[in-house]
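User: Working on a comparison across species. This one is Putative Zn finger protein from Kutzneria buriramensis. Can you predict its structure so I can line it up against the others?
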Amino acid sequence: MSDVQGFPAFPTGSRRRRRTWWGSAWIQAMEDTAVDATLARRGRRIAAEGRIGPVTISPGRAAAVLDGAAPIVVAVEPLSADRWAHLAAEATVQSGHLAALLDGELPHALADLLPGIGELETQCGCDDWGNPCDHAAALCYQVAWLLDADPSLLLVLRGGSVETFGARPAGVSAADAFARPVRALPEPPPPVGDEPRPLVVAPPGIDASALADAATEAAARARELLANGAVDSSRGRP
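Assistant: Here's the predicted structure for Putative Zn finger protein from Kutzneria buriramensis:
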């Protein structure tokens, strides 16, 4: 997972189509510390108006630009090593927790990824005194929409990654695979003497004896090729 992820601007008329408990918790952390509830409500409307540009998620912050000019930042403190260790222990106890997170669900056991009251800090290039102002509140709502769809973004916002949990991506890269030495082929099986004559059921019009002779000769050539790396070119010639 990259340390920085970008998302296109939400179009006009956007709204939350899926309400999750973790997206609601993110909004609650903002609304519970808002100086003016009216600004928060206005922020919800601005979030749906398409005035906020592309959103960038990076460790400790979400950022965007309002009306192509005013920068907006919503900051959240990265987790300490102790809190990451606690979350990693929770994920170890129940191996499905991390898989659920990467599959679009946030287990309650990993709720420490979410900010609490007072943990969200906002900045905006406007002159509004509110904390958050309606523009920063709008970005908070849009980040909640992104988290609704992909709660693993909380790993980035909190300064961690999948590897923080001690996990490693599955599979091997092509470069690593081609760099590995080629293993030697196993030794060919020992010869077994005369080739057994195969039991052949010939279709109508085909000489069963001749077909069995051809199959026996092919088997002998294949065994000779495995044993010697070549076939005697004179085999089968008069």
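For your comparison, note: The first helix runs from residue 21 to 31.

User: Helpful, thanks.
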